[in-house]
Amino acid sequence: MTTARFYDDIAHYYDLIFQDWESSMSRQGAAIDQLIGRELGSEHQPSEISSLDASAGIGTQALPLARKGFRVTARDISPDAIARLQRETAERGLVIPSAVADMRALLAQHLRTVIGDGSFDFIQDQHGMFSLLGVSPQAVERLRDQHHIFMMHDSRINLAGIMPHNVEYVARAVAEEQ
């Protein structure tokens, strides 16, 4: 079973894992708003802040942030979760641009194109929001210092930071530094 299929299968009842999904969303939205305020200062205005939910699912964090006025964009690997998020968004009268995006597959595809072989295809077989690239600690350091691509020393990268507009840059930098 693929990761996308797993989340497709639970998208229709995902809210049931919460005792009260609406209350949980409100708590999570308030907590995220507080964290953003702490980072940006208390004078922040939600309408001035764009936020990407790169693993949006059915919208447990995206919906309350949009309700607070944040400009939220949502992406998820699951078509059914995105469809559910779009229904929830419409029912609440909110605007959250959302689409299916499998950044893991997109990164592997770009690496294949740039490098010319499938040496990074293994990325597609990993699960979760992190991927282990398998590059040396020296390459990790150069990626950080020269390309501003941040990851752990073991080359574990957060895929939520990779988006369609920067995936080619990331792939070229990894290819250059491997």
Write the topology of this structure.
Blueprint: H1 3-10, H2 21-40, E1 50-53, H3 62-67, E2 71-76, H4 79-91, E3 98-100, H5 103-115, E4 130-132, H6 137-147, E5 156-158, H7 167-177
Parallel strand pairs: 1-2, 2-3
Antiparallel strand pairs: 4-5
Q: How would you describe what is shown here?
A:
- The chain is mostly helical and 178 residues long.
- It has two domains: 98 residues, Rossmann fold (3-Layer(aba) Sandwich); 75 residues, Aspartate Aminotransferase, domain 1 (Alpha-Beta Complex), CATH 3.90.1150.10.
- The chain is built from seven helices and five strands.
- The strands form two sheets. The chain has a three-stranded parallel beta sheet. It has a two-stranded antiparallel ribbon with strand order 4-5.
- Strand 1, helix 3 and strand 2 form a beta-alpha-beta unit.
- Helix 5 packs across helix 7 and helix 6 crosses helix 7.
- It is globular, with a radius of gyration of 18 Å.
- It starts with a helix and ends with a helix.
Low-confidence stretches: none
What percentage of the residues does DSSP assign to strands (E)? 5-15%
Number of domains: 2
C-alpha termini separation: 31 Å
| Oligomeric nature of the chains | single chain
Number of helices: 7
Number of DSSP E strands? 5
